[in-house]
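re: ur question from earlier - yeah i can do the single chain one, its not a big deal. heres the input i used so u can compare w yours
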Amino acid sequence: MSVKRFLENFWESEQKNVLFVCMPLKDSSKKFKKIKQAAKSVGFEHAINSSSFSHGDSISHMILDGVANSKMLLFDLSDDPKSKCKFSKQINENVLYELGIAVTIREPEDMVLIRSENSTSEIPFDIKDLKRNVYTDLTADWLQKILKPNLDNQKWFLSKRVRKAADSIDPKSYEIMLYYGRIPLDYFDNFAYVPVEEEHSLYRLMDLGIIRFNSLLVKNKYEYSYHWTPFGYEVMKHLKINKFTEEEAKGEYTLPNFLNNRKKQK
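and the output i got, formated as C-alpha cells:
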C-alpha cells in the first residue's frame, strides 16, 4: 500500500500510548532492551519496533501505522551495522525513509532523534537541521531524560490531525460540543439525548473520532450513550471550548437541570 493511501485511510484519531522505535535491527537487542526500560519509566505502555510485529502482519502496513499513530517516535541515526565498507558508513536506509514520512505528518515534539558519538556516517542535507541527541553509551537513564521533556511539551491539540478534524466541524456539531462537551468529567462524560435535527451532526462527530457510541443490555432493554474521546477533548481545546467552572457545574449545569434546559431550548 502506498504511503498516501495509507494516511488517507488509516490515520487514526487516537494515538496509541507507545514509543515507536525506528532503528537498525542487526545487533540491536541490548540497545532496544534499554529503550523499552526508558519508555516504561516515562509512562509509555511499551516500546515497539519492526521486529515486534507478527509474521502474519503486513510489515510495511504496521510500520506506517507505527509512524502515524504512535504517541512518540524514536529514530536512531547511528551508523548502520550492516554497512559493508568500514571507511564509508551509512545510516540505515529504512530509518531514513521512516523519518522522511514522520517529518511530513508529525509535530517536532513527537519525534526524538538519537545518534552514537562514534558514528561517522554523513547526515543527509535535508535533515541536518533536526535536533539530534548524541550519546556515548546508551542507557535507560540517559534516554529517560531525553524522552520526558518531549512528552511534557507535546501539544496534541495543535497537531495536524486535530486541526483537520476541527476544520471539518459544522455549526450543529459545534453546538453539540458547546452544550455537552463543556461539562466537567467529575459530573459526567456522556450523554444520550440529542434532538432529531442534530443527529446528522452527531454521526459526523462519530466519524471524526470525537465521540464514540456505547450500548449495554440491561434487563432485556438496551441502554446507550455517547462518550467524548480523548481526541474529542483535544479538538474542543483547539476550538477554545472550555469546561464549565465549578460554580457553573454546581448550579444550572447539574445533569438533571442541564438536560431539562436543553430540551426546553429545543
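The first helix runs from residue 3 to 10. not sure if urs matches, ping me
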